[in-house]
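Customer escalation, tier 2.

The customer says the design service returned an amino acid string that "doesn't look like it belongs to this structure." They asked us to rerun it and document both sides in this ticket. The original structure tokens are below, unchanged.
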């Protein structure tokens, strides 16, 4: 094995390990996406996310992730987000307006051809053992929304 080839392999290994360590976020306790039909997400097709018991009492950030294709016809989407916390039985219902284009006219998401967006929607103080059920549906005038491929939920400890 040549010296250059060995150096290249070691360099690639170091870069791979560094990238893996940087991408890990130990504060993320839940990160999951549900698929929607690209031909159209129906208004009454509610997506459900069940988050198991929290390991510790803390303040948690919650974000909605949306992946869209070029088929999506609007610059934003309005979502109804309903959150149930157990065993307390508290319910929180919010309308979240997700704008894909900034005031400067630039796309806020990341990607090429298909874009991913993250929108913060809640900060919750949860106790150890609390579980959450989150229900998301769109609240647009159009009954069926084409071009939304996935909707997700990320919960992270502050």
């Amino acid at each position: 094995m040549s010296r250059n080839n060995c150096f290249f392999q070691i360099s690639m290994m170091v870069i791979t390990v560094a990238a893996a360590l940087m991408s890990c976020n130990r504060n993320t306790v839940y990160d999951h996406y549900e698929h929607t039909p690209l031909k159209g997400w129906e208004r009454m097709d509610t997506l459900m996310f069940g988050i198991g018991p929290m390991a510790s009492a803390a303040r948690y950030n919650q974000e909605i992730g949306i992946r869209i294709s070029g088929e999506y016809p609007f610059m934003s989407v309005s979502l109804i987000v309903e959150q149930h916390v157990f065993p307390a039985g508290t319910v929180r219902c919010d309308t979240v307006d997700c704008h894909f284009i900034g005031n400067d006219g630039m796309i806020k998401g990341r990607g090429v051809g298909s874009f991913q967006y993250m929108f913060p929607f809640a900060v919750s103080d949860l106790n150890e053992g609390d579980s959450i059920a989150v229900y998301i549906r769109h609240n647009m005038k159009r009954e069926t929304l084409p071009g939304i491929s996935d909707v997700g939920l990320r919960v992270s400890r502050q």
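Tier 2 assessment: The sequence is consistent with the input. Strands lie at 28-35, 41-42, 47-51, 58-69, 76-86, 90-99, 114-126, 131-138, 144-145, 148-157. The longest strand covers residues 114-126. Sent an explanation to the customer and offered a walkthrough call.
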